[in-house]
Amino acid sequence: MALHVNHPFAELAFACMADQPAGEKRELLRNLYTSDHDLELFSFAQENEISPQIAHALQDSLGGRTPAHWVEAHDTTGRTIRTYLAELDRVASVLASREIRMAALKNTGIARGIHPCPGCSPMGDLDVLVDRPRFQEAHGLLLGEGYIPERSFRSTRVANVDLDASELGGGVEYSKTLPGGSELCFELHWRPIAGRWIQPDQEPSGSDLLGRSIEIPGTPVRLLSPVDNLLQVALHTAKHTYVRPPGLRLHTDVDRIVRRQSIDWDVFVHRVKELRVCTAVYFSLVIPQQFLGTPIPETVFSQLRPSRKRRNWLEARLNRAGLLFPHQKKFSNGEYILFTALLYDNVGSLRRSIFPDAQSMRQQYGFQSRWAAPFYHFKRLASLIWHDERRTL
């Protein structure tokens, strides 16, 4: 059993998305791209949310002969992301004035500190990490800068968010209209991953990540260290079960970090094992390695690879769900629950995820009385069982 993608535009898409020098792509793209199917390719790219990346590669290959709709897709994304990153720098300066460290997470950090082309870094929001002891202070500063808390992800705006409940969940989401009319979703986290199935003891400590974070020249925004950055995006990719929105774009995060940062693979593998997330991280690495050619040492896979039976089952479900077209339904409820369960390295980790200890339950739901615990355990189980697979873990 192996992962596979069957689509006439798949090879071209992967070639465009891989973070390789332009010269290495040009000849390949000249062989793969034909103007006869250009509009079909553009539709495919839009459905998979990768039109800016394909546009950049085509411009490098075709130059002035690149169709206008590709150029516009790339330029529009570039303008939006430059506006977002300017606001990111501004917010970081506001927090830095109070000596609050702020690190950019996931694609936000990659776009600000690693990858040079904003037009190739489409994203719907900015994600940042602060120390939990400074979280509420950072929240107050954002309110002062015109940020409006949201009750839930990209939903109804509210004047007063339940900050204690939001903090227990790991962060608060805000929206703001930027100069020029762009709508920005801004996510302030103290937990670097968070999620329904992911427990605090299986994600890196936010404080540790900030302590190891590095400066990005020319901005007060900080970037996670290379090992931490790779681990965080790998867990984030697993959180989206590899194939759900934004789909293929998720896997460029791993590719760009590996190609543009120096990874201490021994330290990386040690931290993955320490958190007991080998299976989840394995698939976050093997997908870009197979389809984008990401240069990851075989020794890493040999140390993280799950059993053949587990690997075959997960690969079969990924093949059935498909890496393309992320907005299609990918799993039935039963498949989703079983798929997520098999990403845990052992039964103990799965059990703690379904039935967290008393302290974790109190932290997550904010109750005090031990008599309330059964009610919240039931609430949690119901949430996991009837969870919409199109949302994150």
Structure description:
This protein is an alpha/beta fold and 393 residues long. The protein has a domain at 78-199 and 208-222: Beta Polymerase, domain 2 (2-Layer Sandwich). 54% of the residues lie in helices and 8% in strands. It is built from 19 helices and 7 strands. The protein has helices at residues 10-17, 22-32, 38-47, 51-62, 68-96, 106-113, 135-144, 163-169, 206-212, 226-239, 248-260, 265-275, 278-291, 298-304, 308-321, 333-342, 347-354, 358-365, 373-385, and strands at 103-104, 125-129, 148-149, 171-177, 183-189, 214-216, 219-223. It has a 7-stranded mixed sheet with strand order 3-4-5-2-1-7-6, sandwiched between helices. A hairpin with a 2-residue loop joins β6 (214-216) and β7 (219-223). α1 (10-17) crosses α4. The longest helix is centred in the N-terminal third of the chain and has 29 residues, at 68-96. Mean pLDDT is 86; it is low at 151-160 and 388-393.
Low-confidence stretches: 151-160, 388-393
Structural class: alpha/beta
CA radius of gyration is 21 Å
CATH topology of the domain at 78-199 and 208-222: Beta Polymerase, domain 2
Q: Tell me the distance between the termini.
A: 26 Å
Overall pLDDT score: 86
